[in-house]
């Protein structure tokens, strides 16, 4: 565990909690893509099946359980408790266009052709694109609440910090995982445009809105 | 045997 990995995990945790609190405090999930949140719940579920088969550390187990619990709580708030505020008309990204190709790729390109390994690979690939429905929704409505942009920024930082973590691990532990690294690069690249808007607009105190 | 990095990462 290096400092970049820990900072990445905490940034990820912050993102998840910011989103939960935003929905809870405002009693509304307006502007949030329920599809992205379902995809993230699917990502955690398929990746953390090793909770049952493989113990790594108390930190690892606790964080996995928190991520899983928060992911399902978010989906519950969006689709059950605050369903009336869910902006389904703007959440029109076709999630099956992500899940099906990613599932096919996980079958073809993996470290080992076993159920758990394929599901782990699927979760890595899916995570890299799971934010697309949310970004699509923002591009469609042309704006995002500031708190939503903080959520996205923390989520993007998590990925960027993981990239630095992998560079660190490559140099100091001679350790790398090509599947995770390639997917992580793709995921980070998807955030670049958003990072630019966040820095030039939100951090200057302006609301994030896109030109019509 | 090459273990996947993701196994100890989140």
Automatic annotation (TrEMBL), chain A:
A GO cellular component annotation in the UniProt record: endoplasmic reticulum
Subcellular location: Cytoplasmic vesicle, COPI-coated vesicle membrane; Endoplasmic reticulum membrane
InterPro entries noted in UniProt: ER_ret_rcpt
Domain of life the protein comes from: Eukaryota
GO molecular-function terms, A-Z: ER retention sequence binding
Membrane topology: Multi-pass membrane protein
Protein name in the entry: ER lumen protein-retaining receptor
Species, as recorded: Ciona intestinalis (Transparent sea squirt)
Gene that encodes the chain: erd2
């Amino acid at each position: 565990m290096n400092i970049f990995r820990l900072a990445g995990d905490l940034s990820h945790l912050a993102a998840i909690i910011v989103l939960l609190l935003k929905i809870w405090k405002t009693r509304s999930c307006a502007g949030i893509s329920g599809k992205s949140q379902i995809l993230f719940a699917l990502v955690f579920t398929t990746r953390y099946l090793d909770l049952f088969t493989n113990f790594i550390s108390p930190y690892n187990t606790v964080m996995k359980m928190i991520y899983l619990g928060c992911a399902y709580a978010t989906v519950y708030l969006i689709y059950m408790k605050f369903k009336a505020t869910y902006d389904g008309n703007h959440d029109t990204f076709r999630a099956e266009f992500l899940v099906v190709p990613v599932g096919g790729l996980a079958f073809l390109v993996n470290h080992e052709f076993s159920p758990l390994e394929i599901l782990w690979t699927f979760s890595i690939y899916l995570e890299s694109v799971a934010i697309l429905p949310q970004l699509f929704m923002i591009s469609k409505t042309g704006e995002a609440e500031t708190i939503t942009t903080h959520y996205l920024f923390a989520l993007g930082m998590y990925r960027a910090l993981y990239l630095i973590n992998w560079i660190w691990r490559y140099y100091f532990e001679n350790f790398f995982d090509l599947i995770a690294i390639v997917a992580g690069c793709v995921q980070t690249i998807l955030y670049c445009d958003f990072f630019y808007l966040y820095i030039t607009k939100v951090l200057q105190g302006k609301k994030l809105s896109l030109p019509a | 045997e090459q273990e996947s990095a993701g196994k100890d990462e989140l």
